Amino acid sequence: MPELGYWAIRGLAEPIRLLLVHTGTPFTDKRYELQGGPPERWSAAEWTSVKETMGMEFPNLPYFIDGDVKISQSNAILRYIATKHDLVGKTPVEMANCYQMQDVAMDLRNAMIKVFYAPQDAYEAMKESFLSTQLPAMLSRLETCTEKHGWFCGASLTFVDFALFELFDQLIRFSPKTMHKFPAILKFHAKFPHVSPQVEQYIASPKHTALAINNKMANFL
């Protein structure tokens, strides 16, 4: 059975979990925990003690093991699963659009992470700047895209929609006031859970709802 390994949070792995659930792929959901914490340093020993024993060229979290295939990096894992299940576009142009949109999604996530894990003394100022300027600019283009296409890479569902759903879900929890200015994104967010019965069930289950979004040292969990 394939194994997905990641921290016991949503983070980078939740779009992968959603994609595996949607495609009906049984998998072991290996979740690693940070230990310790303030006033001591957080310890990643549960992961670092085994990472070099797993036979991966570039061991990292998340990782995905599927028989002889052992890969890390969330984008590579999403593409691998999507390619197996025809969720990556049907032509070279469609595939290129998917890869472009995946990088756009990662740009958005990286901007979010800078705020979520900001130093505590800088958090409020960074949050205000992000919500007032950077985030609206990024969401405006995504709003136009989903208004035009329905899904983010055209008329059909692709793996990119799984990544963007998770980011939008986090942002709705982080700043609902900001997100309510983007009705097309909210419409996408509302329809996505219904892409399959298994995704709808997973999103409503404790496997999803009980997980923190970020790790224990973050400002926004």
TrEMBL record:
One of its GO terms (biological process) is glutathione metabolic process. Keywords: Transferase. The keyword Signal does not apply. InterPro entries: Glutathione-S-Trfase_C-like, Glutathione-S-Trfase_C_sf, Glutathione_S-Trfase, Glutathione_S-Trfase_N, GST_C, GST_superfamily, Thioredoxin-like_sf. Its EC number is 2.5.1.18. GO terms for molecular function: glutathione transferase activity. The keyword Membrane does not apply. SUPFAM superfamilies: GST C-terminal domain-like, Thioredoxin-like. Residues 1-89 form the GST N-terminal domain. Gene3D superfamilies: 1.20.1050.130. It catalyses: RX + glutathione = an S-substituted glutathione + a halide anion + H(+). Residues 91-220 form the GST C-terminal domain. It is an enzyme of class 2 (transferase). Homodimer. Conjugation of reduced glutathione to a wide number of exogenous and endogenous hydrophobic electrophiles. Belongs to the GST superfamily. Mu family. This is glutathione transferase. It comes from Aphanomyces stellatus.
